[in-house]
């Protein structure tokens, strides 16, 4: 399991022949985002929609990407992330480089659907 964001990006690019610029485009990021992150490091966790887009672009599990970003932003020591990933790997199959929607994308779509769903008729109406 890769432990940093850059290792995930490099692994994906090596496996697919894609460039970092192509990953940025697929994730809908500005042209200089990766350049800035390389020069100054990943400053903090990106917004959820950015992480979901990156997980989809890199075809990695959402939680694996968040863990890699935490390591890259120095919020989580690499050895702690590796130990946790090794423990998780025993509990679930590898999900890297799989096709389809990431778990993060599915969760986001479920949340969006729930937020736009009309109120249930089971709840009593409030009348003034």
Shape: globular
Number of helices: 7
The number of strands is: 0
Strand content: under 5%
Q: Low-confidence segments, ≥5 residues, pLDDT <50? A: 94-99
Write up this protein:
By secondary structure, the protein is mainly alpha-helical. The protein contains 7 helices and no strands. It has helices spanning 5-16, 20-27, 33-40, 48-58, 62-72, 78-91, 103-116. Helix 2 packs across helix 4. Residues 94-99 have low confidence and may be disordered.
Give me the secondary-structure topology.
Blueprint: H1 5-16, H2 20-27, H3 33-40, H4 48-58, H5 62-72, H6 78-91, H7 103-116
Essential attributes:
about 0% strand, 7 helices, about 130 residues, mainly alpha
What is the compact description of this entry?
With 128 residues, this protein is mainly alpha-helical. It is built from seven helices and no strands.
